[in-house]
Every structure is written in C-alpha cells, then in structure tokens.
Amino acid sequence: MVRSATRSAAPAEMADESLGSVLAALAANTTIAIAKGTAAALTGSPALLAETLHTVADAGNEVFLFIAIRRSRHPADASHPFGYGPERYYWALLAAIGMFVVGGAVSIWDGLRALVHPPELDAFWVGVAVLVIALVLDGISRTVALRQLRVQAKRANLTVHDVLRESADPTVVTVYFEDTIDVLGAALALLALVLHRVTGSGIPDALASVVIGGLLCYLALRLTRRNRQLLTNQSVPERYVQRLRARLEDEAEIEAVTRLDAVYLGPRQVLAAADIRMVDGLGGEEVAAALARTRAGIARDIPAVDRLYLTPVP
What we know:
Elements: E1 4-7, H1 12-43, H2 46-72, H3 86-116, H4 124-156, H5 160-166, H6 170-199, H7 203-231, H8 238-249, E2 254-266, E3 269-278, H9 284-301, E4 305-312
Parallel strand pairs: 3-4
Antiparallel strand pairs: 1-4, 2-3
Helix pairs in contact: 1-2, 1-4, 1-6, 2-3, 2-6, 2-7, 3-7, 4-5, 4-6, 6-7
C-alpha cells in the first residue's frame, strides 16, 4: 500500500487583504471611541455611553484580529506541523467574547440603570456632531470590509451572503459585522439623542442603550459559534468536496474515490484525505508516479488544498 501526501503554500495575499480591513477598522474605531467618550461625558447620554463602550470593544477586537492575522501567518514547524492557521480562529473567538462582555452586557446594564434614574441631557449639539462623524467613519470602514468580501465572493463564485455564512476567514467577516452594528448603533443613538431633546425624557436614550447592547450580544454569540465550528475542524462545504472528488476521478489511473474528507486548517488552507481505488494492472512504480502527477495537478488547480493525503485501497 502506498500513502502519499502533498503540501502547498497558502496565498499570502489573503492575509494581506484581511489585514487592510482590520487596520482600517482599528483606525476608525480608535478615533470614534475618543470622540464618543468625550461627548458622552459632556452630554450624560446613556446611548452615547453605550456607543462609547461599543466602540472601545470594537477597537480592542481589531487588536485581537491583528494578532490573529500575524500569528496565523507563521510557517509550519516541528511543534505545529500543520501550521498556525487555527490561531486566527482562537483570537477571533476572544474578540467575540470581548464584544459580548464589554460591548453588549455593559451597554444593557447601563441602559437599564438609566431607565431607573434617567440622566439630564447636556451639550446636545456636541453629541449630534460626534455621532454624525461616527456614522461617516463607520460607513467608510464598512465599505472597505464589504469591498474585501466582494473580492472573496467573486473569487469563489459565490454571493456575499454565502461568504458571510461560510467563510473560513473570521477577520473580514467580524470587521464587516462590527461596522454594520456600528452604523446601526450610531443611528439609534442619534435618534435617541434627538428624542431626548424634543421630549425632555431620558427613556428613549436608555432604551437605545439596551437595544445597542442586545445587537452586540446577538452578533457576539453568532461569531462565537462560527469560530467554535472552525476551531473544532469543521469540514469544508460539500460542493468543494464534490469538486475535489471529481478532479481526482478525472485522473486516468484513479478508478474511484471511496472516501474523501476535507477540513479547514485556516483561511484558504484545507487538509484533504482520500481513499482511492486505482485501475487494475498498475505496478508499484506506476502507482507512485500516478500519485505524484495527481498531487502536482491538484496543487496547481486547487491551491487552497494545503495538504493532500492519498491512500490507495483495494
């Protein structure tokens, strides 16, 4: 029995594209967090305080995602023979937990406290100006992330919705969802601020803080579930498995693929193992040569397959 494996290098440009989205979001969120914190202190608005905590959590998350990208790009070594791809999932999981605790739970608590003791509203126009600026900056950051998602979708011949649901790169997806919630949260806080000024009641402000916290908790739980799936060796979507199966069975020396498993090692890094039945009459050297040609062809045609194990079976 001959068992053979191949390894190919994952495209470095994927990490670079993700890094651009993360750095753009980090720059925007750091600037916005300072502005929102100042406005929250001046106005006393619970919604603005919730937005400040939200943005601080986002900025912290971008730091985690930056670490995730840098560490996941380390080459394979003796202690990590399959590479460091799962580092991206681990740090993205920490980012999602931080979003839940700092951004979501604290915002909900502050909103509930404000319902019991509504604060006075001061420096109204400062709050409005800061939230308008935040909407613009968050919108720009979201546009950068959306552009990257569209590039990934076009590359894989998928829709953006499909990429968001099944992408193995949690960094760009996290930034996109964060920025989407940022835009919604800033719009809610702005509306709450206006209602507070018009009605003289702090209840809309407090309710907006609770809603913003709820949105963050929902997003954090969704991202946590996705990263848990990737950390626990989730298989690649079935259509990719079938594409690889068909490519293997196109080889003249391979009669059938009796079993094929493929799991993610990292973004655009897949480990695949196949039991294959060779055509009758091949000698040992012919089998070895056929496997070598197959490995080379797969590495050329499907570069995402970082490791390919082929085991001839009776």
